[in-house]
Specification:
alpha/beta; Purple Acid Phosphatase, chain A, domain 2; 2 domains; 6-stranded mixed β-sheet; 6 helices; binds fe (ii) ion
Length: 288
């Protein structure tokens, strides 16, 4: 082999090594990234009144504030929501991390979150439901903190906004318990109700319901650690229906659900192929 060929060969090998290293670094950065994903999702709803067409709903869930590695992403998510300026903001539970149940430290470590949540503002309000971790920490205390920051907690009750939109909140399915009959009390004959429920399994209880057209949830963290493309995850804390599924789901002809991947992490301060998200849902009226 000539010297020229040897030189070319070494250069080619070196170039391949450099490119491979860059590519590997890039994919690793993506795989473990905790960079926020900002989602804009159209939600087509048959027969939605014109007054609600284009209404925007901000969604954040599963802060797990105070748990290892979560605080910065919590602050980033709230800043992102400020900039997105939706008409209404919904917070789908697990504000605190309740891994050590009923330990006052859980709340103490997450006080910064409640101070930041107070800065959120939306023309039609900011609303919350509790998650299982809020219950495991101290549901009464979390409710008091949110209420004190002008964020009503819709624990099995509903509210009608000035534009006619009804938002029904369900307490956590595991620990509340969640009760859709109470949540829909007084509005059973209405249509196009939006429901906020930490756990997406609430959809199983809505099989015979025709009043709810959108369910907003979190809880699953998207699996948190999952495979690329298929989004298979070794553990998702809900029914098998939602394994590998996040974002917008067409549950029935008239009902949609949206599952946030959440902001924080549980147990391990790690996400794999599953970045945290902040979402804005755009309600779209579709002709029947
Ligand atoms: Fe969670």
């Amino acid at each position: 082999m000539s010297n020229t060929k040897k030189t070319f060969s070494r250069r080619a090998l070196l170039r391949t090594l450099i490119y491979s290293t860059i590519a590997l670094s890039g994919s690793t950065a993506y795989a473990t990234s905790d960079n926020l994903e900002i989602l804009h999702t159209d939600v087509p709803i048959e027969g939605l009144p014109a007054a609600l067409d284009g209404f925007t709903i901000g969604v954040m869930s599963d802060f797990h504030a105070g748990a290892l590695g979560n605080n910065e992403v919590c602050l980033n998510a709230i800043q992102a929501m400020h900039e997105l300026k939706p008409d209404m903001i919904t917070l789908a539970g697990d504000f605190v991390d309740g891994a050590n149940s009923h330990d006052a430290e859980n709340i103490h470590n997450s006080m910064f979150l409640f101070q930041e949540l107070e800065t959120l503002n939306a023309p039609f309000g900011v609303f919350a439901v509790l998650g299982n971790h809020d219950h495991w920490a101290d549901s009464k205390h979390v409710t008091e903190l949110l209420t004190a920051k002008n964020i009503p907690v819709l624990n099995n009750r509903n509210i009608r906004l000035a534009n006619g939109l009804i938002l029904a909140g369900v307490d956590d399915l595991w620990e509340g318990p969640g009760d859709i009959r109470k949540a829909l009390r007084g509005v059973e004959s209405e249509k196009h109700i939006n429901m906020l429920s930490h756990n997406p399994d609430i959809n199983e209880d809505l099989i015979h319901d025709s009043s709810v057209s959108l369910v907003i949830s979190g809880h699953t963290h998207g699996g948190q650690i999952r495979a690329p493309i298929s989004h298979w995850a070794p553990w998702v804390p809900c029914g098998p229906r939602y394994t590998g599924k996040t974002g917008l789901i067409f549950e029935t002809a008239q009902r949609r659900s949206f599952i946030s991947k959440g902001v924080g992490t549980f147990l391990l301060p790690l996400r794999l192929f599953c970045p945290p998200d902040v979402a804005v849902l755009h309600l779209r009226s579709v002709k029947v």
